[in-house]
Amino acid sequence: MDEQVLAERFDECRGHLRAVAYRMLGSLDEADDAVQETWLRASRAGAGDVANLPGWLTTIAGRICLDMLRSRRRRGEDPGGLDGLHGLDGPERAGGRDPEEEAVLADAVGLAMLVVLDRLGPAERVAFVLHDLFAVPFAEIAGIVERTPETAKKLASRARRRVQGSPSVPAADLARQREAVSAFLAASRSGDMDALLAVLAPDAFRRAEGAAEVRGARRIAGETLANPARARNARLALVDGAVGVVVAPRGRLAAVLQVAVENDRIAGFTVISDPARLHRLRLALLP
User: Fold this and answer.
1) Where does the record place Basic and acidic residues bias (predicted)?
2) Residue 272 gets which letter from DSSP?
3) Hey, what's the torsion of the CAs at 58, 155, 237, 170, to 10 degrees?
4) For the purposes of burial, counting CB atoms within 10 Å of the CB of 8, is it exposed (0-12), middle (13-18) or buried (19 or more)?
5) pTM
6) Could you tell me if 200 and 184 are in contact, meaning their C-beta atoms sit under 8 angstroms apart?
7) Band (128; pLDDT cuts 50, 70, 90)
8) Where are the domains of the chain?
9) Level-2 CATH architecture, domain 171-284
10) At what angle do helices 53-75 and 28-45 cross, to 10 degrees?
11) Predicted confidence (pLDDT) per residue in 205-225, tens digit
12) What is the CATH class of 3-164?
């Protein structure tokens, strides 16, 4: 296969490779870098008589992403160079990338999904993304993570358990929590004061690090509607086994809201934004 044909075939696969890399890296800039590096390696190697070009390119991209994840972990960096984005209303930085483009893509993938994937180790993340999200066989994943197929399967299984989480409350309680918190987020996004007051207990509280406690449904509702960005970037998640909220601009975790629900209404929020405390929380997707 000559280079011109390879380039044409690579362009046909570019969207797929970008989607794979983005889910593995959680950063559009890094995903585009990984796709470019995939092309450089593929063009140097030459496709020869490769029968499954998309699979071959995905394998190359997977190895590149794994190396990038390992390098990021060694340096202790946040994806996309967003160290320090830990406030509810902190600035969104995206290097040379248009933040709006990445926000749309992050929302399509799922903000909570990106947050939870970021909790996985590099090999776990690669194995889970490739197998569970893109149906890559474990025999191929094994070569990428340099393990046996059986070990690659275990990596994906362990990652799946962490992504799915385990509720610590009965199913009926979880459903009531979910209904109340979903109603709160829906009212926040639509700007519906009456709906917010209906779901908040009259003496609801909000506690946040370094701030005075806020009391009263009307005051909480007013402050909520005054900060629409929070609602746009907020998604339901399992927080330490109960229904909570992750606030994640472009999939980068900025804060977590632990929610107390009593008698089908929200009794209060505890807002956590300190990086060390965020790291200790068990976050997962809601079942």
Assistant:
1) 89-98
2) E
3) 140
4) exposed
5) 0.85
6) yes
7) very high
8) 3-164, 171-284
9) Roll (3.10)
10) 130
11) 999 988 999 999 999 999 999
12) mainly alpha
